[in-house]
Structures are given as C-alpha cells and as structure tokens.
Amino acid sequence: MRRVRRNLPGAGAICGAFRPGINRSLIFLRDLARNRLESEAADGRGQHDGRTMAAGLAMALTVLVQHANRPLRQGVATALEAAGMVVRQSRDGSEGLALLQAQPMDAILTGINMRRICGFSFIQAVRKQPGLRDIPILVMAVSATPELKARARQAGAAGWLPQPFDHARLVETLRIVVASGGG
Predict the structure, then answer these.
(1) Which of 68, 114, 134, 160 has the fewest CB neighbours in a 10 Å radius?
(2) In this predicted structure, what is the pLDDT of residue 59?
(3) Sheet strand arrangement including 137-141
C-alpha cells in the first residue's frame, strides 16, 4: 500500500491510504449524488434549486454509529457531530435495532464483530423491516477482504469503510451515500 494525497473532492481514499477500487467508488458515489440532485432540480421534484451539490448535501443527518470498540465508536461520533450531524451510539446489533425502533435514522455505520447480534445479522434484520430497509448502511471494519465485502453487500450494506478513518473523508462519504439514496 502506498500513501497518496489528493485534493479532488470525493477522489481521495477514506483512510488516507490508496486501495484499488476505493477512489473509483467515491468518484462513482459523488457523481451519482450529483446526477440525482441535478435531475431532481430539473424535474422540480427536489428541493434543490440549481445550487451546488455541496449545498444539497449540507443537510443535518441523524446517524446510528454502532461498534463494539468504544473509543472507535466515540471518535467517529465526535467527527460526525462536529460536522453538524446528530449521532446515536450502540455497542451491538441488539441495541442498534432498539434505537432504530425508537427514532428514525438517515444512515447507519456498523461494525461486524459485536456481541449478541453481529453486523451481518444486524444488516439483514434492518433490511427485513419495511420502514428501515431504505436506510443506507456502511460497514466499518479493519479487514477488507473481498469475501467480507461480498458478504456485507449480500446482507444489504451500501458500502465498506476501512479503518483507520480519515474523519473528513468519512463525513464526505456518508453525505454522498445518503444523498444518492444508497439504501
């Protein structure tokens, strides 16, 4: 792995290290969100009156951050709150499901290895509930093997966020996925 720095919006790697496919995925998500916002504005369906994509993405989001690792969970929550998002935290899938029943969320960031209900089972449980199935779910994990990514996609995850995180890229990616309807 080699370190790279890019100043292109949406083109840098989330974690600050180059991994094949991540940059292309971010560019794809950025373009998808931009096209959706532009088409909604053109059709008069959207609340976006021709303003830039950044203005359309500057919405206040409510995000569930769920991970067994408390310092990681709190670090992510702090970064999202600093970006103006409302954050709810849970340490496993069981707590996460209870929070989703109590309050609507715009997006979910989840770990995989958790007690009681693991991340994969949690994703499947969310996707089975009609009122929750369209919420974008991003997986936060150290390991990024093709098998784990495929399993997460099959369960219904919208994307994979490798650790460690670059908090600015995390916020940007989350906003792009939500704006693109990545559920």
Answers:
(1) 134
(2) 55
(3) 86-90, 62-66, 107-110, 137-141, 159-162
Residues in CB range of 127: below 8 A, 6 or more apart: 133, 155, 156
Boundaries of domain holding 65: 59-179
Q: Per-residue pLDDT tens for 57-67?
A: 445 899 999 99
Number of structural domains found in the chain: 1
- What CATH code is carried by the domain that includes residue 170? 3.40.50.2300
pTM of the model: 0.68
With respect to residue 133, please indicate whether it lies within any of the assigned structural domains. Answer: yes
Q: Is residue 8 part of a domain?
A: no
User: Which pLDDT does position 62 carry in this prediction?
Assistant: 94
DSSP labels for 139-151?
A: EEES---HHHHHH
Paired sense of beta strands 107-110 and 137-141, if any: parallel
Half-sphere exposure (CA, 13 Å, Cβ side) for 93? 18
Q: Is residue 127 part of a domain?
A: yes
More confident: 162 or 5: 162
**Measured distance CA(159)–CA(84) in Å, rounded:** 22
